[in-house]
Write a structure and sequence with these properties.
Elements (H helix, E strand, L loop, with lengths): L1 H6 L1 H12 L3 E11 L2 E10 H7 L2 H18 L7 H18 L13 E9 L1 H22 L5 H16 L9 H36 L9 H16 L5 H13 L3
Helix pairs in contact: 2-6, 3-4, 4-5, 5-6, 5-8, 9-10
């Protein structure tokens, strides 16, 4: 039973990831402040919404799952299984952090600002754990690690699959593979940095392009306030200069 679970562990973890997409994935809290007026809003999305609305990174997450399953169960792709089951979870791991676009942006030179905060839900953490396990299993199989009960169990299950479906597996130069893996990781890191920079820039542009509107004041309300100020001036509570200053402030609010 244990060997069967390990044999199909990639498919099980991929299924867990897909099921977890139906759970709350993240919540977005937006706080806007302009000219002394602030407004807050929040929304919650599940994993499927994140996938469909996140563009490239959302689709990469799904493609990575398909690649893992294809190289595991389709014989003609089995020769690429080790590298696919290592690279695909890495892409999935990056996608779940990039796709929601966690950021905080400020703009307007102090006159207005937009703060965006993203907090993660249970769906995110389930996918995170499953993806990390996929990445660890892929690393064990790619490097053919041995000397540990877990390593041996995973490698034995891998050898059992190879026996049932004979495949011609090309020999791998471990040094060259490590170098290629380093290059892939570098490229992914540069891409992530660029995407994060683009997201922040777009948020800043949105903050500058859409400042919160100033509050509108009813003319009757303003005239009522001016009359009260006049009564206070007549009673000696306000000086002529103070009355003129306050009156001008209320009149400006009508513009």
């Amino acid at each position: 039973m244990k060997e069967k679970i390990i044999k199909h562990i990639n498919a099980i973890l991929c299924a867990i990831c897909v099921i977890a997409l139906a759970l709350p994935f993240s919540s977005v809290d937006v706080s806007t402040s302009a000219f002394g007026v602030s407004a807050d809003s929040s929304s919650s999305v599940n994993g499927f919404t994140m996938i469909t609305d996140a563009g490239m990174w959302g689709f990469l997450f799904l493609i990575a799952i398909v690649v893992i399953l294809a190289t595991t169960y389709i014989g003609k792709f089995a020769g690429y299984k080790k590298i696919a089951c290592l690279a695909s979870p890495a892409v999935m791991l990056i996608s779940i952090f990039i796709a929601p676009g966690q950021l905080s942006a400020d703009g307007g030179g102090g006159e207005y600002s937009v703060d965006i905060d993203i907090s993660y839900g249970p769906g995110f953490f389930i996918i995170l754990v499953a993806t990390v396990l996929l990445l660890g299993i892929g690393l064990i199989r790619f490097l053919d690690l041995k000397g540990n009960a877990i390593f041996d169990l995973i490698n034995c299950a891998e050898e059992g699959e190879a026996t049932e479906t004979p495949q011609i597996t090309p020999s791998v130069d471990l040094g060259a593979a490590a170098e290629k893996l380093g290059n892939v990781t570098k490229n992914i890191t540069e891409s992530v940095t660029q995407q994060a920079g683009n997201i922040v820039e777009k948020a800043k542009e949105a903050a500058q392009a859409k400042p919160a509107p100033q509050p509108k004041y009813n003319s009757d309300h303003v005239m009522e306030q001016i009359n009260k100020l006049f009564e206070m001036k007549e009673k000696g509570v306000l000086t002529e200069e103070e009355f003129t200053q306050k009156k001008a402030e209320f009149l400006n609010k009508l513009q």
